[in-house]
């Protein structure tokens, strides 16, 4: 899942981003509304965690732009105000969910995951394919009943492949969904991660390389 965190309190923004990355999400961070508009014009995000009171461009205007562009991106709006009228106003602008500060990180994570599921074709909470069972919420993976431990990026790549339901996923698509914008697109990080993932998943191999196209399960 690709997430954009937009928050002018840099310590909070960086802490949220770090926590979401530990949950196997690819996260970009910006600290003002103008930078947010720039990012959403370049990258495809599943969810934008959007502070309402932003410098340069207000969070409301960023949200309106996402709606105006007809993007499938879901917006989780943050604010220091917990008034019902503010929540209603934020939802009417086009936000998909609303979370007042201060918040529990576990709740924010759950809401981001819930919104992320709404950007794609609905799938069951637990993904199953080729003997693999993946639970995104608990971050648990089993193959033929045996639990497998994966690093966050390995988990993210496997989740993208599982969600594709047998379709081929290109290296570029994996890079877009599992890594943030600071990753060099010319590195072999996708190939190396897939190789490690294959080894950890064991025999027989379930990740198929489609020459010139990408990977599928």
From TrEMBL:
InterPro entries the record matches: CheY-like_superfamily, OmpR/PhoB-type_DNA-bd, Sig_transdc_resp-reg_receiver, WalR-like, WH-like_DNA-bd_sf
Coiled-coil stretches: none
Gene Ontology BP terms: regulation of DNA-templated transcription
Residue positions, PTM 4-aspartylphosphate: 51
Domain Response regulatory residue range list: 2-116
Matching CDD domains: REC_OmpR_CusR-like, trans_reg_C
UniProt entry tagged with the keyword Phosphoprotein: yes
Sample GO molecular function, one term: transcription cis-regulatory region binding
DNA-binding region range list: 124-217
Membrane spanning stretches: none
Key words, A-Z: DNA-binding, Phosphoprotein, Transcription, Transcription regulation, Two-component regulatory system
Domain of life according to the entry: Bacteria
Domain OmpR/PhoB-type span(s) in chain numbering: 124-217
Entry's Gene Ontology cellular component terms: cytosol; protein-DNA complex
Record function comment: Member of the two-component regulatory system CutS/CutR, involved in the regulation of copper metabolism. CutR suppresses a defective melC1 gene, encoding a putative copper-transfer gene, probably by altering copper metabolism.
Name of the protein described by the UniProt record: Transcriptional regulatory protein CutR
Annotated organism of origin: Streptomyces sp. NBC_00060
């Amino acid at each position: 899942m690709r997430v954009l965190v937009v928050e002018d309190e840099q310590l909070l923004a960086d802490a949220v981003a770090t926590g979401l990355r530990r949950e196997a999400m690819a996260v970009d961070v910006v600290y003002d509304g103008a930078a947010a508009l720039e990012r959403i014009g370049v990258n495809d995000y599943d969810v934008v965690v959007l502070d309402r009171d932003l410098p340069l461009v207000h969070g409301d205007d960023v949200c309106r732009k996402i709606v105006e562009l007809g993007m499938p991106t879901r917006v989780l709006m943050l604010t220091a105000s917990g008034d019902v009228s503010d929540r209603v106003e934020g939802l009417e602008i086009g936000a998909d969910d609303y979370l007042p500060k201060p918040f529990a990180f576990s709740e924010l994570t759950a809401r981001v995951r819930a919104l992320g599921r709404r950007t794609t074709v609905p799938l069951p909470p637990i993904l199953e394919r080729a003997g693999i069972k993946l639970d995104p919420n608990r971050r648990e993976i089993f193959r033929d009943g045996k639990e497998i431990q994966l690093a966050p990026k390995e988990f993210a790549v496997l989740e993208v492949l599982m969600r594709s339901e047998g379709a081929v996923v290109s290296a570029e698509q994996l890079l877009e969904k599992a890594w943030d914008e600071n990753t060099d697109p010319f590195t072999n990080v996708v190939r190396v991660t897939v190789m490690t993932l294959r080894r950890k998943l064991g025999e027989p191999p379930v990740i198929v390389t489609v020459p010139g196209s990408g990977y599928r399960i």
